[in-house]
Amino acid sequence: MLKGIAASSGIAIGKVYKLEQPVIDIKDRECNVDAELKCFQDALAKTISDIEKVKERASKNLSEEELAIFDAHLMMAQDPEYGTQIEDMIKDGTCADKATKTVSDMMISMFESMEDAYFKERAADIKDVSYRLVCNVLGLTIPDLTAIEEEVIIVAEDLTPSDTAQLNKAYTLGFATEIGGRTSHSAIMARSLEIPAVVGCKGVMSTVKAGDTIIMDAIEGQVITNPTADQIKEYEAKKEAFLKEKEALKILVNEKSVTVDGHEVELAGNIGTPKDVDGVLANGGEGVGLYRTEFLYMDSTDDFPSEDDQFEAYKAVLEGMNGKKVVVRTLDIGGDKKLNYFEFPAEMNPFLGYRAIRLCLDRKDIFRTQLRALLRASVYGKLCIMFPMIATVNEFKEAKAMVLEEKEKLIKEGVKVSDTIEIGMMVEIPAAAVLADEFAKYADFFSIGTNDLVQYSMAADRMSEKVSYLYQPLNPSLLRLIKMTIDGAHGKGKWVGMCGEMAGDALAAPVLLGLGLDEFSMSATSILNTRKMIRSLSKAEMTELADKALKLDRMEDVVDLVKSALK
Ligand code: PEP
Ligand code: MG
User: Fold this and answer.
1) What is the pLDDT at residue 161?
2) Residue 263 carries which DSSP code?
3) Domains along the chain?
4) Is residue 31 annotated as part of the catalytic site, yes or no?
5) What is the Å distance from ligand 1's center to 35 Cα?
């Protein structure tokens, strides 16, 4: 049994699909010219048909312009010069794998050394095509998530946001990754896709093979390899019970999130794309408390998404939520979130560097495009705009002023903009939490981003399993920062939400309720559980509980206090 972190609840039992790039290892060996020529020609034909298949599958999601890249790849694979050079080398006695690799490497360095930027960039395309060709010569399979056509559990070192975007929910029973924590982006994506996931599962890549049957228990955070028939039976029963419980919660979909003594809070969902809106509504979400717009930028392959493309996405979310509140976070890129088409400066600590609002205030062109798209979409629902990673009052004021400037410009151009847009900020840097009462003079609302607030308060990288013990949202130090934020806002009549993972944590909810949090925004799948809990609690009792928690000195003591109160 391998231990990991339960990142998205559920149980999966099934065959492993390993997402692992094959390593090319070419050894000198005896070879027969005719056999090698045939091997190369078959591999070339397979490469061409592979690229055609990838193009066909991609055509469902990509534009004509984006698909052009596959035509370029096909042209390269079919280039007679390329093929002839390899065949000539084989005829001179070199084995097919070595000949293919040698000619490809020569072509790559030739293009890389060219002055012209266009040709330089083509080197990457040749790398791509020739890697596929060499793998085919060697009989190695390149994994392709879009080609999966049976139910599997994906096992990978990590899944990038673009990997998760390619997952077909119909065939993905779940995924287990070697690295990552509860707040890493693969974990967040798993929850929004409602796929069970175990992350930070050390040893899973070296232990399991493609095709093995495994049990992934993403409730306890473990992977069972080589399960016995009895274990499979046991976990099938567990899975059924889990799904039954989930189904039973559905009776709360249209209920209010109100405590036994009549205190009402709002439970909202976190989303990454317009497609996630359905999940929020199906799970009784009363709004969207965080729309992470960076996925729109990360899914775009070769340039920033245009104002119109962004407008369509924001409009779809606002319309989909049908008048319910939608909090859209402006571009939060940088740290571990990179773009294919934008070069970030090399920094020692990218999480502390040029990212999110810092980048947007520097690259105002990028920021203004997003703001205009948002403002144009504002008439389709109830829009709240929030800025990520605000550290100083000046940053907030500057960003807000830009929203107002763009609004003015649009109105002058005759474009309709809503008059009820709220402009708020994330509180995810301790400096902002400490100064919340001052920020509250300018911001309409706060949303506490505990994933980063914990990371920056504890100085512990959220991506590193080695320091994951410091992910302590229930540490009294964090609770005090949260209290400062809530009190600072309430003192000026502003509302406070939380959109970090803590908001959906069953042990945290009683304390957050007691501290006076107004809105809890979480993965759609956690909403009904949280509603059930809130409906069983008394606000007055939880206020007392929170007061006690604030005076403790260890996270463990807070956990014990909450557990005994819940009993
Ligand atoms: C957070 O930091 O808590 C948050 C919600 O934002 P992200 O996880 O996208 O950094
Ligand atoms: Mg954050």
Assistant:
1) 66
2) -
3) 2-21+144-229 (3.50.30.10), 33-138 (1.10.274.10), 265-552 (3.20.20.60)
4) no
5) 56
